[in-house]
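Schema walk-through. Below, the input block comes first and the output block second. Nothing else is stored per chain. Lengths vary across the set, and this one has 590 residues.
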Amino acid sequence: MARTESPVDVVLVGFGWTSAIMGMELTDAGLNVLALERGEDRDTVPDFAYPKMADELTYGVRYKLMQRPAKSTLTVRHNVGDMAVPYRHLGSFLPGDGVGGAGTHWNGHTWRPQPQELRLKSYVEENFGADIIPDEMTIQDFGVSYDELEPFFDYFEKVAGISGKAGNLNGEIQEGGNPFEGWRSDEYPMPPLARTYNDTLFADVARSEGYHPFPLPAANASVAYTNPYGMQLGPCNFCGFCERYGCLNYSKSSPQTCILGALKRRENFAYRTQSEVLRVELDSDGERAIGVTYIDPEGNEVFQPADLVILGAYSLHNVHLMLVSGIGTPYNPETGDGVVGKNYAYQMNGGSSLYFRDKEFNPFIGAGGNGEVINDFGVEQIDFAQEGFIGGSYINAAMTNGQPIRNMPLRAGAPSWGEGWKQAVQETYGHVMSIGSHGSNMSYRDCYLDLDPNYTDDHGRPLMRMTFDWKANDVRMTQFMKQKIDTLSKALGPDDYRLSFKDFDTRYDVRPYQTTHNVGGAIMGTDPSSSALNRYLQSWDVHNVFVMGASAFPQNLQYNPTGLVGALAYWSAKAIREQYLPNPGPLVQA
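--- output ---
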């Protein structure tokens, strides 16, 4: 029989960005809060200390900070009629493991969505007509507006300590920033990072082509900074060990750097590691959660009673927990009924590699959030009816690292092994820069998450099954960006360059890394018949369960998701504190 622990007011499942935020907000409200993390405890000291963390083989190649597929995975297929097979080796996306989650190993790109993206379906219908939306496309509005979220974007940026340059301060366009962004009530907490050579080349050429370059908003501190919780960040030293690594310098925004030191000092907060939550337990009528069941470090099953359950795990795990716990109706792609698992989406990327015989880029000088960007082809700037697709992309040039195993770009036609390969590496290392597009991905009727009928995990639970493939709309979008990047690449005058973009016969492939930007499956909205969560991230079906993270996105943004994830967490926390706690129950009437 499961051991029963003493009740708590709130149990947080997972201990990354969103649970750290919820921990601060709900302990501040006087609640006793417990976080359960399936992985190990991790902190800057001793876990990220130099020189241990600057180990490319251990962390960059062997994924020490990631979840092992042997312990936690899902199955993947392209189409509804296919047999799904397990994701056995990390590649396409990299869920984080341990305290801090994916917020430990990310690069740090921190964006706000364009206002139109939060009401995308309405924006398309109002400006281009509903008939341009393909029948198979299932895009929706988020149910919350940019104006409502703006104070929470601002606060998250101050907590995380974001470096950047505002482009729109209270409706006034600012020189040097992104002129296409939504309005901001304040400047970024820190100025932009120092520029690297490739950034300068790209910005100059983009400006000469009539575009509007600006520094990428970065969760890498450009100067010394103290955030609202009293946590201190030191200026980034451009060591190049950001993505897949914990920051050894207290420079990259992560839960450890920005929140956890303050949260752990609170007497009404506790956390347990190596504690994997198996399911949310519901009362007899299935309308209220009574706690969670987890496996402790010794392998024992434990029941943790709680009045409020907040799912703050990785987006895919949030959806899996809802499915195995019976929270909400599973989505059925054949009928369109059900909501849990609906609208899984990913990210559409492409780019070019440019070789310059006589230019030296010193790639070992890099940062995860380094880069110059143009947003001239964002969602608001494109005529969807004319171009034949819905979506958008930012285009950037960035030098993030010069790691000798993972960063060895070669010229087109170079041998893939042997003496010729070695010679090509010697000739090209340090002489290559890249331009990339980071684009949206729409949601579709047959791209979804459900429980696999054939595979189970170590605990006997069905694995989650992902059904996903690229669609023509998103390929048209990335082919549009290919033309723009081709023009910019030629204008830079390289000795050689090559383009890499998905084409119409490209199938989704889990082997190469793409992004860790998995979204959807527990989407938010205004109607319980088409969304799993209401506008405050509260389950429509179980009122004391709130679900954080990118699983709430009805489709994917053209941007990296963390800025919106953080803002939504603060938005939800405010609703819990001011509305739910005084009067527990549904915050929105169905």
